[in-house]
Amino acid sequence: MSPTRSAAFFDLDKTIIAKSSTLAFSKPFYDGGLLSRRAVLRSAYAQFMFALSGADHDQLEKMRAYLTQMVTGWDVEVVRQAVAETLHTIIDPIVFDEAVTLIEQHQAAGRDVIIVSASGTEVVEPIGAMLGVDHVIATTLVHADGRYTGDVEFYAYGPHKAVAMEQLALERGYDLSESYAYSDSETDAPMLSAVGHPFAVNPDKNLRRMAEENGWPVLVFVRPVALRRRLGLDTRVGKAAAAAVVASAVGAITVAFVTRRKHRVAA
After folding, report:
1. Is 219 inside a domain boundary?
2. What tens digit of pLDDT does each residue of 15-26 get?
3. Of 116-125, 180-189, 230-239, highest mean pLDDT
4. What is the Cα 254 distance to its own chain's centre?
5. Active-site residue numbers?
């Protein structure tokens, strides 16, 4: 059966949110007894370096190995509870307004929106639910008897992201040649190359060069937004009317992007 619809795939860190999603939860994990003070300081430093210059392949591999080793033996439910209890405090203020608008526009056009992130499912799935996306592709860690073993079942990184996207497209009937992808990192070149409409968002130096070579539009996201306030979720009336607010906002909001060339998302 021929694919009949398109989708929009978003990287998470520095594309939808302004920080590393996993490292952003270092304090709640410390408060939950999962992290030592030294580990919190180390993750804070890693967060600073990530924000300052991005992360290349070797840095991300070192970060993955460190985080995998760090979580070995952690109680899975404690992790999920820490994320659930602090999600809006930690993630809500660092979501890019431009990314939220793009998500709304794609959904209004009838496209599924999928987050594709190297962070773990325990972090990415709640963020995806908060943003109202249709699906997430994320790293899956092995756990036994309620604790992480230190093994990785699926690492959503580099070419693995593209493979997972292709598999999801087969399952759901997406035409990748008519689909969209957004990322900030050169390590996501396979993800961007897998679709017909790739966009480099706040790109690192190497991805910017790739974008110029391949004619990929470059977007700059600079406005973190308090998501609950933006969607009117801080009030009782707003909670009941959130869906209507989102739907009406799609037609009313125009976003100015800094691009290498003018490019409009096709309806």
Report:
1. yes
2. 998 876 655 555
3. 180-189
4. 22
5. 11, 13
